[in-house]
Design goal:
The protein folds into 2 domains: about 1-70, no CATH class; about 75-255, Methane Monooxygenase Hydroxylase, Chain G, domain 1, CATH 1.20.58. It has 9 helices and no strands. The protein has helices spanning about 1-15, 25-35, 45-70, 75-95, 105-120, 130-160, 165-190, 200-215, 220-250. The model has no long low-confidence stretch (mean pLDDT about 80).
Length: about 260
């Protein structure tokens, strides 16, 4: 029995070290080991008794997994879709001052969702291809964290700009552009089989840089504060652009379906 346990556990350790998470075959191997360990090694045990115990356990486990997989599947790609779509919806509500609900609650929820995405991303590295996708998601998560902290700042900046009608209209146009981009970003992940397009932010970034260069020529107390405010919008636009570049490199249609157990 010791020799059999050694062979099973050696093979389990060798192959399981290359597999992330807990798969069905790993769970079945551990149950087999537990059944063998529970045997009385001092008395002979018929092989049929061992197989009856193992098959009984595995039939129950297989039925439970099959029912859960068919009727209530919990797949990491579906969790990612739900979480990032919720991130986009809350981001839109943060950008929209007229939206209902507490801004503090929306900002708090927005800050926690990137970490939920990071936890879910850790479960998709099943094979070499998905590990490449996992690396892209891991690059996106820190950007989403920064973006979740940046968007509430923009709302605060727009709220305090009341003396300049021209600046107010300009910031309103920036918010509208960011709102449209976030809406398209959420749709991008809800329908990964569609043609992948995202609104370009290069023009917005270029206009912000031009406006900042113009303000640098007339530096005073008012223009310096405006320059700082515009820099916050420039940072947000750059973060969105980086998120969009990573999202466009994802091959979602190849693993977004119900493909892996």
């Amino acid at each position: 029995m010791n020799l059999i346990l050694f062979c099973i556990l050696f093979g389990y350790g060798y192959f399981a070290s290359k597999t992330p998470g807990m798969t069905f075959w790993m769970l079945g191997t551990l149950l087999l080991v537990s059944i063998l360990v529970a045997l009385n090694a001092q008395n002979p045990v018929p092989f049929a008794t061992i197989m009856d115990s193992y098959i009984g356990v595995m039939i129950g486990l297989t039925l439970g997994v099959t029912i859960a997989r068919v009727f209530w599947p919990t797949l990491p790609q579906n969790e990612l879709r739900t979480t990032i779509a919720r991130f986009c919806n809350i981001a839109k509500s943060v950008l929209d001052e007229d939206s209902e609900g507490s801004m503090s609650e929306a900002s708090s929820a927005l800050a926690t969702l990137p970490f939920n995405i990071a936890q879910t991303t850790a479960a998709i590295g099943i094979n070499r291809f998905l590990r490449q996708e996992q690396a892209k998601w891991n690059r996106m998560v820190p950007i989403l964290v920064s973006l979740s902290a940046q968007l509430p700042r923009l709302t605060c900046i727009r709220a305090k700009v009341v003396d300049s009608q021209e600046m107010r209209l300009y910031l309103d146009s920036c918010h509208q552009h960011f709102f449209s981009w976030m809406e398209a970003f959420g749709h991008f992940f809800r329908r990964p089989d569609n043609k992948k397009i995202l609104p370009a932010l290069e023009d917005e970034i270029h206009h912000l840089k031009q406006e900042m260069e113009r303000l640098k020529k007339f530096l005073n107390e008012h223009s310096l504060q405006t320059l700082k405010d515009l820099n916050e919008y420039l940072v947000a636009a750059e973060l969105m652009r980086r998120c969009g570049d990573i999202a466009l490199s994802l091959r979602l249609s190849e693993y977004w379906g119900d493909y892996f157990l």
